[in-house]
Specification:
single chain, alpha+beta, six-stranded antiparallel sheet
Length: 221
């Protein structure tokens, strides 16, 4: 009897130990699962700040500065050339002619005048200059039209330009400052009055000729 009682007690204790073990196993499994969840959060959730740093330049931009642009207008026909519309900010073959072109077909003793205007069509201040090329007579004979035709150029810019009356040839290579600070903001309009004349004593051998002298107006920041 005594022996059987002891055996029963051991079995009961064994069953109790087995239950405790199962409970401990369940707790260990639950703890492991919880650790896995925390680890997952650390990789992809709020704890990812430990393993990844990010900077976003969401207002990243580029800004351009100011540029000069020159517009030339002839009052007689309102023809104009504007560098702002060109890819390289230049109009090297502007058909506007300050000397008048075909409109200035002169006989001995005649003259022709044009009124030319310049404005800064850009956003930066600039200095306006004039460079005169070498005059070329299309068909020089015993007389060269460049040596006889006279030109007068006067501008109201602060450069005080006043050239001539002088022959086209005598002004070859002339370079002058017309306006020291031409700005769009000020609305400044520089006017240049240009006139050409053929003296009354010009020889008949000059009839039917053409004299060409390039003028380059440059606005530099």
């Amino acid at each position: 009897m005594g022996s059987g009682g002891s055996t029963g007690k051991r079995k009961a204790t064994s069953y109790q130990n087995d239950g405790d073990g199962r409970r401990r196993g369940g707790l260990i499994w639950f703890a492991a699962a919880g650790a896995a969840v925390v680890l997952a959060l650390g990789v992809s959730g709020t704890l990812s700040s430990w393993t990844e740093a990010v900077i976003g330049n969401d207002t990243n931009s580029v800004t351009t500065g100011g540029a000069v642009a020159l517009k030339q207008t002839r009052s007689s026909d309102l023809s104009s050339c504007d560098t702002l519309g060109s890819a390289d900010n230049s109009v090297l073959a502007c058909t506007l002619q300050p000397y008048g072109g075909d409109a200035a077909t002169l006989l001995a003793g005649d003259s022709h005048a044009e009124e030319i205007h310049f404005v800064n069509d850009g956003t930066a201040d600039g200095t306006l200059t004039l460079d005169m090329a070498t005059c070329v007579d299309t068909s020089p004979s015993t007389h060269d039209l460049c040596d006889v035709t006279e030109v007068t150029i006067s501008c109201d810019g602060d450069g005080g330009v006043s050239l001539g009356p002088a022959t086209l040839t005598s002004l070859n290579g002339t370079s002058v400052e017309v306006e020291s600070s031409l700005t769009k903001a000020s609305g400044k309009d520089v006017q240049c009055d240009v006139s050409v004349a053929l003296p009354g004593n010009a020889p008949a051998a000059l009839a039917g000729l053409t004299a060409t002298q390039g003028l380059t107006w440059t606005l530099s920041a």
